[in-house]
Amino acid sequence: xxxxxxxxxxxxxxxxxxxxxxxxxxxxxxxxxxxxxxxxxxxxxxxxxxxxxxxxxxxxxxxxxxxxxxxxxxxxxxxxxxxxxxxxxxxxxxxxxxxxxxxxxxxxxxxxxxxxxxxxxxxxxxxxxxxxxxxxxxxxxxxxxxxxxxxxxxxxxxxxxxxxxxxxxxxxxxxxxxxxxxxxxxxxxxxxxxxxxxxxxxxxxxxxxxxxxxxxxxxxxxxxxxxxxxxxxxxxxxxxxxxxxxxxxxxxxxxxxxxxxxxx
Length: 264
Known about the structure:
By secondary structure, the chain is mainly alpha-helical. The chain has helices spanning 2-13, 23-46, 51-71, 77-101, 106-128, 139-166, 170-191, 196-219, 230-253, 256-263.
């Protein structure tokens, strides 16, 4: 009984550091993970670091950002989205390393990542008792949350590459398919009783390749229908959009404590 009371006390003292799941959250998520792709490709391909070296660099940055997030005592929007970007850059190069350097191929790589993600969710549910994504109550759950996000962004990269390159759908066909599935997920959120956690992770994975289309518009050459900004400048544009979105979103909430956290 004393042990149970102690655990309940720890849970009640643990401050939730996650943002609310709103339309603004999804806009920022798409922007952040698109930035992760352009940034990951910039280092691994444009700067010729290669997939393995880039993965090691971005994974180290992810661990540093995650460590800071875990030590923080409250929700810091810029810190939270920094960790999201780190999961996406690391996920991009991890997926490319598996699929291209190790020559697993997009289909096999995606299958492996789906298996890992399902195992992570099962372990999270078994050890914590839930897979809550709006209110984390323990440090263990917070770690599971971020590791699951890392692999979901990695899966999103592999899935997007598979759909656009191996499935025969092509770039535009893949975009239409992903858009359609996301529309179904949105409708299911409002009109069905399907588990919200399930719908969240489906949307979280699919918004990764969905956002990649925006990255292609920025980076592709003019004759390919793009703006030809290149990966470096595109990453700066996306970073600017994300920071502005964060500032506008939290200003609209009128939460003085959160706005103060942005300047802390």
